[in-house]
Structures are given as C-alpha cells and as structure tokens.
Amino acid sequence: MSFMALNEKLTTVFAGDLRELMLISYIVLGNNAVTNRFIEGSYQMPVHAWSSLYAIDRFPGIRAKEIRSIFPRPQNTISRAISLLEQRGYVRQGASESDGREKRLFTTTQGQQILAEMTAMSLRRQAELFAPLTAEERDTFFGLALKIAAGQNLLQSVVLGSNEAPSSTLVADPILNPGVDRD
Amino acid sequence: MSFMALNEKLTTVFAGDLRELMLISYIVLGNNAVTNRFIEGSYQMPVHAWSSLYAIDRFPGIRAKEIRSIFPRPQNTISRAISLLEQRGYVRQGASESDGREKRLFTTTQGQQILAEMTAMSLRRQAELFAPLTAEERDTFFGLALKIAAGQNLLQSVVLGSNEAPSSTLVADPILNPGVDRD
DNA sequence: GTCATGTCGATCCATATGGATCAATCTTTC
DNA sequence: GAAAGATTGATCCATATGGATCGACATGAC
C-alpha cells in the first residue's frame, strides 16, 4: 500500500466506502486543473478546443456531433470550440453534400502544427502522470479502465434516474451503446 | 479486450498514443456530467458543496483550507461552497481559539441527514459504475490508481512547468507531499 | 512597541459553462 | 406536394468558475 505521499485525510478518505469514486475523481480533477491551466495559459484556448482539434485531426471529415461521443461534453461547448478553431484558422469546414446541416471538419496545416506541439506536451504529461506504474501495471490499469468505460451506465445512470437528458446535454449515443435495450 | 460497447471512434482514440489520458478523462468527465446534473437538480447545490459537506462530516473541525487537499479545487470554490452550506444550516463554524482567521467546521444534524442520503446515492452510483469489474479487479484497479495518486507530479507538473501556482489556485500542499525535495 | 511579511478565507470581476431555444435542413406521412 | 416531426449546429441567458485582490489576523525582525 503506497500511501506515503498522501496526507492523513486523503488516506482516510481513500479507505472509506466511497473510495473508488473519490480516488479516480481526485486523480482526474487534479490532473485537469494542472493541464487546463497550462493549455489556457499557453494557447489561449479552452481545453475543449484542443480536444476538438485532436478529434478533427484524427478523424478528418468528422461532424461536430460525433465529437461529442468521444469527449462527453455538452453540445454548445463543442459548437463554441469549433467556432474558435475556425476563427484561428486551425480548422476548416467542408460543406457536406449529403446533408446541408452538417459541418464536415478538417484540420488546416496550421492546425496540425499546433496540434503536434500540444500532443507532444500531452504525451510527456501522460508519462509523468503514469510514471508510478510499471509498464505491466499500466497495461493492467488501462485494461480495467477500458472495461469501466465500456460499461452501459457510464453516461446514463439507472440509479440516479438520469435518463431524461435534455437536448443540449450528454446523450447516450445509440451508436455508442449499440444493442443495449436494458432488460 | 472488451470494446463491445464503445463506438468505432472511441476505440480508435483508446488505441492511440494518448490512450491512457483519454480513457481516464472519458470515464471521470462522463461520470461527472451525470452525477453533477443529478446533485444540482436534486439538491440545488454545486457538487463542490456536497464534497465539502462530506469532508466536514468526516473530519469534524476541519479548516476550509484543508478541504482543498482532499478535493483539489480552487480556494474560492471551497469558500463559496461552505458559505452555501452555512446558509442552508448544514454546517456550523466554531471559532478557532488558536487562530482568529481559521474557521473550524462541523456538520449539523440537518447536514448529517442530507449527507447520509447523498452518500447512499453515491454508493449506488459507485456500484453501478464499477459493475463491469469483478471484486478482485476492483481491488487491483484501486491499488494501481492509488499509486498514481500518490505520485509526486499529479498536482504539480514538471513537464508542463506549472510550478508558479497563483494563490487562489491549487497548491501542492507540503503536508500532501511530505519529504519530497525532488532531486 | 512598529513595521514588514505571511496566511486564512471572502469578495470582485471577467470569462466559461450548460440548459433552453432557435433557424435551417432533412425525413416521414399523408 | 404540404405538414409534422426530427436533427444539426448556433445563440441566448442565467449561473458557475477561477484568478486576482482584499481585509483580518498572525508571526517575525528589529
């Protein structure tokens, strides 16, 4: 049990009933605070803009809506992020011939450049964050986290009764959970 | 590899270089969106208020500042959360005799009641979230996450150069990382 | 004692966030 | 074809957020 770098109160919390929820929140929120401040400070953009840029570069021609299934954020957040990326010239939109409502998104050369920078930085941050684990442990951790992510109730909860999601909010994408029809 | 409930794009992202960062963020941000909406909707308070209430109940007499080492949030966020909890009568502050600036915080009976409700709900949510794992896998996952949390660079990054934290922001508590002096 | 400095928690204010709504477009039904 | 309904992405607006500052108190040097 490697409690050594955690203070007494944290140790106590991480021994309580809600330990798992508390612990993963602690990790991700703590990490986000550091990372978000860095990105906002260095690149004058909200983190969601960089997330969106990442998604667009990775999936050329992706639609705005689809970005939401990768980064579970509200619809208007993505909309604004894309608008910012367009203003800065990092992203261009090709009109979709099949559907006039859709925006088909592509990164520009400039966008790719800045993304490469930011990705390199993120990789170093990732290495730093996971440094306490051995390579094997990292694999194990990743595998287990993947199981959690693939669970049916991550984005929609049965016990919290959060099934009437408003339109602008997270929606459990039918694509994301293909053949579910729970019980 | 249990990719079954993840769509194609997510599967791709979770196979890329930034997979670990992407995956844990996906889990926690997705979960938070659901949970926050529930707490805000059901209890008319921001999540940080409930976090603070939890901390105060768990550590009677805790100071506002110390809550920050459990929940890595900015100072003014905690300040506001406590102010709300006081207004609602969930928390009372005993004056500290040793230091006139400090607030020693305690939950009221009313606060304990509502906390019990919320905790019960969180427990069910936790069970739901981790349901894809066996008991043994949960232990493994928890142990590895604990190692990450206990790492030196969670709240302060060397590679992002985020060491000049402003006063109202996250501070790597000296208590939290006791005898570090990194090389 | 006084003055400088440090720390705790509240408040100010500009910005980010997210729920709701809207216009535009597509699909379905008759 | 017209009308109803669904879907995409932008915008409106009230609220939350977080960096900076402030006042109150504490501590240390002289």
Q: Strand share of the residues of chain A?
A: 5-15%
Low-confidence segments of chain A, given as residue ranges, are: 173-183
Largest interface: A-B, 92 and 92 residues
Mind describing the biggest β-sheet of chain A? 3 strands, antiparallel
CATH topology of the largest domain in chain A: Arc Repressor Mutant, subunit A
CATH A-level architecture of the largest domain in chain A: Orthogonal Bundle
Structural class estimated from helices and strands of chain A: mainly alpha
Counting copies of identical and different chains, the oligomeric state is homodimer
Find the CATH superfamily of the largest domain in chain A. Answer: Winged helix-like DNA-binding domain superfamily/Winged helix DNA-binding domain
Helix content of chain A: 55-70%
- Output the number of helix runs of chain A: 7
Number of strands of chain A: 3
* Rg of chain A, Å, rounded: 19 Å
Q: Could you tell me how far the N terminus lies from the C terminus of chain A, measured between alpha carbons in angstroms?
A: 39 Å
